[in-house]
Design brief:
alpha/beta, 80 strands, single chain
């Protein structure tokens, strides 16, 4: 207060005081103070001069001013320099202003405003310091002005609408602002407004935490937006942000800048940018949103620097339309969808960024998106690490991908990719190039892939240079049917299966490739495949203990090998009938059975070498021809336990004998599926009963031989396109006239992806079962829950396998009888005490999923005989009964 300022008092009574605040204002001059006695005043105040209103005793909110008219604000300011301190102001209509600054400027300090908003328009200036605004509708504070606005340590709450609206060309600064319990957005900035938010808190708005529209610009530093009903930050448009952003950007820089902010538990996207919006996030953390972490659409731009995006329900980062999105030094983790999703015509760049722990593929680019990945770490996903499909363009430089449920890198459709320095560690497949677009892979390293290391899909023509594949679970490098890749200076080592596999009619160009220490063939050439191989080394084939030739050449293949070396193998070449390879200057060293031609340029003579050894072959058990039905049923009845299974098989036998009699009398046979599902834990006799079942059907006359062929996934499923169908057919033909027993059949459907052929094996098997329905009985076996899923996974399986036999775990008495049976077979005898001890032992053994049942009983018998031998060896004069008796001491 200046020296010439006058103090005016307002009180309901007393000498020298105005009875009303309005009267005091009219009596005051610019710079005067109006001190108001505590109490409640009903007035409509119009302040048209630079005066200060404050409580007489300094007690905040002891002075309460209520609006006198429903359609008028309680306070209207039309002059610059007006100031209200520590007063409570209450309007009558929440949808109208309780405080209106139509011109000039107003500072509210320590005030409480209820029942209406605080509004500034025209060129007015507005400042709220340590204020509380509540009970308004539409907005709590609305600064639609060309003048400045400031909100300091102010609380906006209980608003049926937006907390703060900043519009026109205002330049606003909010420090320590708190917005909560509003049904609309927390803060809305539009028009040409510029806003700087410092250390603000926006909690639980019904819509967006921060909404930016039109050509507005916002900078938020160290702010927290939490529990929003929609997006944490939504940008529908903003003025362009300068390319060079200072370390502490301000609203004047343009666009929307969030630095060191937290966006938590949002109802939709953490940050959503659309239209021409332009957003920079620096050092921000976005966590637990119901939608994507950051999304950019239309012509928007979004950039993240040193940010964390954690656990969104949608993708961590999304770019669509013509949007441009970049991330540097950022972590995207725990998404329930993709880590990054780029679609339509978006342009995305990730540098030094981690993308991990996603529910879908970590990085997915589709449509016409353009994606660049540099020095990123990607992985820990049940799907692909990086996938590009449709017409997407992918550039990769120095990226590490690990622990993916499917492929580390998956290229589909017509996607193009230029990849250098990619490292793929573990996962189902390493690199799967199924795209017909241009694909170049350079200096890539694939280690410990569960299945194929690198695959060039059907009809593709990828270029591979200086790539390394180590320790793949099946094939090292697969060239699909009709594929024509160029492969140069690559290394394949320690593949469990074959090193380099060519599918039917493939024609690659291979130069300076080394294949070493493979479990099967170094080079497998499929039917009618061609291709050239120059200066290649094939070393150490068949390391899994089987005698696989280094080079296997299928029927009709015609590869050309020039200057190649085959070494450290049992056999160098095995060619099927009709193969026409050409060898030019090739050499075999340290090969036990060499077959390579000795001439400078020769074709391998027809029939040279043998066929490659089969891995995972089916095992056949021939049924004795002298079996009678009565003997077989007696043998079944003599098995320990399995009462329910014995009853079910006996019922099936009666049914099938009736069917056979009807057929012999010329009557139509009823519909009958002889195929069975055996479910139960290991060691419960499934294979034994399957073998008996085949012999029983042969005795009844429903099968020709009744032999049993045991197969698993490895006997049915091939390693490359075109391999599975013939492989499954061979096993089925082997079982013709008997029973095909497929153990752990659910393994045919437990794998997914373009490199898995389990579904092809099932489709082939179903067709063969239909074509030869009277020739083969198929039994599928495994754990109960897995078998339910397996049969239900395919309508063809469900219609053919309609009967399930449950093999229950053995009880203790049954396990003891198995041990006794084993003992009798091997001329041992259990003492009564040993039988009791055995019963007690089996009573205490947990019957979990891993319990071996009959197998466990047989193993226990073997252990007892070993312990008995050690015990009896110490007896000086062991009798025959000593050598036969098994006692409690022999139990481990």
């Amino acid at each position: 207060m200046t020296a010439t300022a006058t103090v005016h008092r307002v009180a309901p009574r007393g000498r020298g005081a105005h009875r009303g605040i309005g009267a005091a204002v009219r009596a005051a001059s610019d710079g005067d103070e109006i001190r108001i006695a505590p109490g409640e005043y009903v007035e409509t105040l119009v302040v048209d001069r630079a005066v200060t209103l404050l409580p007489e005793d300094g007690a905040e909110h002891a002075v309460r001013i209520l609006a006198a008219h429903p359609g008028r604000p309680v306070l209207e300011v039309t002059a610059a320099g007006a100031r209200v301190v520590g007063v409570a102001l209450t309007g009558q209509d929440p949808a109208l202003p309780a405080v209106l600054v139509s011109a000039g400027g107003l500072e509210l300090d320590g005030c409480e405003v209820r029942g209406g908003r605080v509004e500034a328009g025209g060129d007015a200036a507005l400042t709220l310091r340590r204020c509380r605004v509540s009970g308004a509708a539409l907005a709590g504070v609305h600064a639609n002005t060309t003048g400045p606005a400031a909100l300091v340590d102010t609380l906006i709450e209980d608003v049926d609408g937006t907390g703060v609206v900043l519009g026109s060309t205002t330049t606003a600064e909010a420090t320590g602002l708190e917005v909560r319990q509003v049904t609309g957005s927390g803060v809305r900035v539009r028009g040409l407004a510029r806003a700087l938010l410092l250390d603000c808190r926006i909690t639980g708005p019904g819509r967006s935490g921060l909404l930016v529209e039109d050509d507005a610009a916002v900078t938020a530093l160290d702010c927290r937006l939490e529990g929003t009903g929609a997006e944490g930050v939504r940008v529908l448009g903003s003025s362009p942000r300068a390319e060079a952003t200072p370390e502490r950007p301000t609203a004047a820089d343009g666009g929307v800048v969030l630095a060191d902010c937290q966006v938590l538990r949002t109802g939709a996207d953490g940050v959503a940018v659309s239209g021409t919006g332009d957003v920079l996030l620096r050092g921000c953390r976005l966590r637990d949103g119901a939608g994507p972490g950051v999304s950019a659409e239309d012509d928007a731009r979004a950039a993240l620097v040193d940010c964390q995006v954690d656990r969104p329900h949608g993708s961590c980062l999304v770019a669509r339309g013509n949007a441009r999105l970049s991330a540097e030094g950022t972590s995207a983790h725990g998404s329930r969808a993709n880590g990054l999703l780029a679609g339509e015509r978006a342009q995305v760049s990730l540098a030094s960024t981690d993308v991990t722990g996603c529910g879908f593929s970590a990085v997915h680019a589709c449509d016409d998106a353009r994606l660049s990945l540099t020095a990123c770490r990607i992985g820990s996903t049940p799907e692909h690490g990086v996938r590009a499909t449709d017409r997407a363009e992918l550039t990769v430089e120095g990226v590490r991908v690990s622990d993916c449920g499917l492929s580390g890198l998956q290229l589909d459709a017509a996607a193009t990719a230029r990849v250098r320095g990619l490292s793929v560690l573990r996962g189902r497949n390493g690199i799967n190039a199924e795209s017909t677009g241009t694909v170049v892979l350079e200096e890539c390293d694939v280690t410990e892939a569960e299945r194929a290391g690198i695959t060039c899909g059907t009809g593709t023509s990828a270029v591979l240079r200086d790539c390394r594949v180590t320790g793949s679970g099946t094939a090292g490098l697969v060239v699909g049917e009709r594929a024509t890749p160029s492969i140069e200076d690559c290394v394949v080592r320690d593949a469990t299966g074959s090193g380099l596999v060519l599918g039917p009619s493939a024609e690659p160009r291979v130069r300076s490739v080394t294949v070493s220490r493979t479990g099967k063939n170094s080079l497998f050439v499929g039917e009618k495949a061609r291709g050239t191989f120059e200066e290649c080394v094939f070393a150490g084939a068949g390391t899994d203990g089987h005698a696989f030739p280094a080079l296997h050449l299928s029927a009709g293949s015609a590869p050309v090998l020039r200057g190649c070396l085959v070494r450290d193998a049992e056999e160098d070449v095995a060619a099927e009938k009709g193969a026409r390879p050409v060898f030019d200057g090739c050499v075999a060293r340290n090969v036990t059975r060499p077959a390579l031609p000795t001439g400078a340029r020769e074709a391998l003579s027809p029939g040279a070498g043998g066929e490659a050894s089969a891995a995972g072959a089916a095992r056949e058990t021939e049924a004795p021809s002298e079996d009678t039905l009565e003997d077989l049923l007696a043998e079944l009845d003599g098995l320990a336990g399995l009462d329910r299974v014995k009853h079910d098989v006996s019922s099936l036998v009666k049914l099938m004998r009736t069917v056979r009699r009807r057929e012999e009398m010329g009557l139509a046979a009823p519909p009958l599926s002889r195929h069975l599902v055996f479910t139960g834990n290991p060691g419960t006799g499934k294979t034994t009963v399957a073998r008996l079942y085949g012999r029983i059907l042969a005795a009844v006359g429903l099968l020709e031989r009744g032999h049993l062929v045991e197969a698993d996934r490895s006997a049915l499923v091939g390693e490359y396109v075109g391999h599975t169908g013939p492989k499954t057919t061979r096993v089925f033909e082997q079982a013709r006239g008997g029973v095909l027993f497929i153990d752990e059949a659910y393994s045919l459907t437990q794998y997914a992806g373009t490199n898995d052929f389990g579904q092809e094996a099932i489709a082939t098997l179903l067709k063969l079962m239909e074509d030869h329905r009277d020739d083969v009985v198929v039994i599928v076996a495994g754990y109960p829950k897995e078998m339910d899923v397996f049969v239900g996974s395919n309508p063809g399986l469900a219609s053919r396998f309609t009967r399930t036999l449950l093999f229950e775990d053995y009880g203790s008495a049954e396990l003891v009888s198995i041990v006794e049976h084993q003992a009798a077979q091997h001329q041992y005898a259990l003492t009564p005490a040993a039988c009791e001890a055995l019963t007690t032992h089996f009573d205490t053994v947990p019957r979990g999923r891993g319990f071996g049942n009959g197998r466990a009983a047989r193993q226990l018998f073997q252990t007892m005989t070993e312990r008995q031998a050690m015990r009896v060896a110490e007896l000086p004069d062991a009798s025959e009964s000593d050598l036969m008796a098994l006692t409690p001491e022999d139990l481990p």
